[in-house]
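Components:
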Amino acid sequence: MNKKLPVYQRVIIYGVLILICLICIIPIITVISISFSTDMAIIKDGYGILPKGFTLEAYKYVLKDMESILRSYGISIFVTVTGCVLGLSFNAMIAYVLSRKDYKYKKQLTVFLIIPMVLNGGLVPTYIWITKYLHLKNTIWVMILPMLIVPWFIILLRTFFSQIPSSLIEAATVDGASELTIFVKIVLPLAKPALATVGMFITLNYWNDWFQPLMYIDNSELYNLQYRLYILMRDVQEMIKNSSISGMGISIADLPTESMRMAMCVIAAGPMLVIFPFFQKYFVKGLTVGGVKG
Amino acid sequence: MKKRMGKAGRKKTMALTAMALPASVLLFIFSYIPIAGLVIAFKDFRYDKGFLGSEWVGFKNFEFFFKSNDAWIVLRNTIGLNLLFIGVTLVIAVSVALMINEIRSRIAVKAIQTIMFFPYFMSWVVVGYLLYAYLHHDYGIINQLLNFFGLESIAWYAKSAYWPVILTFMYAWKVAGYYSVIYYAGLMGIDDSYYEAAALDGASKWQMIWSVTLPMIRSIIICMVILQIGRIMYADFGLFFQLTRDSGALYATTDVLDTYIFRALRVTGDIGIGSAVGCFQAVAGFILIMVSNFIVRKIDSESALF
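Structure:
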């Protein structure tokens, strides 16, 4: 490895990196702090990076509307799991076919895959097609199907699959294994790291999606977590109006609306921020293999 | 014998084609048909008449857009801000990668990468909340700081002049960690013997960075930048929509093609203009991506999209 820097330069480097790390996490800490602050303190002193006072009041009010939060969690989980299972299967299957040098229509299929990467119909035709012709508006499938196939994932997977020695596949063919058996029994187990990487990207895509609901979902029963959070940001009152709190004789003015927003944000974003760092190595692995195509 | 081989070959082709079918069908439905739908840019689209039944109007929809004041503002914002994002993110990500490369402790490297990756895991909605905590007029942390130093509060969500800076900062905040991982991986691939040779020649650390490290990752950097420029017509909708809270007062500096099309479709209901702008974006984007990919393939065919 190359030689060490003088001590003072290393101190500067560590200092700068620590500063950047702080800039990355302080906003997150701020939101958590606000969610535990009392509204009295917020109105008096404003938001703080550290909690001002400590109360669970905001969470208590947000969770009074447990039913709609759980429903949104349910929608987000269903969409993410379904999208991940179907997306991973379909993308991996076509990627495997493309990785096979002996596939007769390899060239045609590659072109078929590349065209959507360089040209797309855009928002307006897509919207009209999905609402007027496919009638997918206000269905859960509109949050799953249009995002299922991602050419970039296919190319990433194909790169992995091409590294599998073709002699393995040939040997299995001679043994009389069907193409599907070879794919499931031989190729997939060898490609686990690649599948994990792409699986993480797909999960992130679905879990963080709010655009599909923004375009296609009006029915509040189908709001996913991110979209519910967006609605709350737009209008805290709109959220409360429809919820069970409004029937409890509490006027909106008495609610800790400022900390409630942030509490909702923590409830919506928290679990993923705890889970994802554990899978981060797969992102890093995928990025290094997928190279610059991201 | 020959005949049997042919039969086995056909069976194999059929089995493989069947495996490619689900993805192909979905791609056809959700990508190809909307591409064909671009024709509505040349029509007076009416919901009841549909894609095929609506009347042709030639370039009228395009004329409306390009003769309006919006065209210049929206194009300037889309291209200008994207260039700003690409440049700033590049400098930060490469600098961070170079700095991490000087750190010997594996644990420290991992910790820094994990923390810098946090923002990447967040949706733009959540990032919008974080920003709101800082920019809120009465309670926001930035205005508190301004007041602390005796300065007046600023109505951030109403003053468009600040937003190019805010958006650039937030974009870099979210993706710099991601890109620095890519560049860091490039640095890890540099063979130690280059550094040893440079050390023998008496090169200082900084000379090594200039004359060994940077040239070695130059092709990755160039390819990344060109590919990003290829997508310069496409703005990150979430960034512009969520962080600005879709505030009309900010449109002068924050309205981009994607937000403009979104509003034409869903707010003002002007499908004609929306589809014309969308068609322009698709065609200009197509040309740029093809050109940039062509250039990248000349430099480093491995890095090209296709």
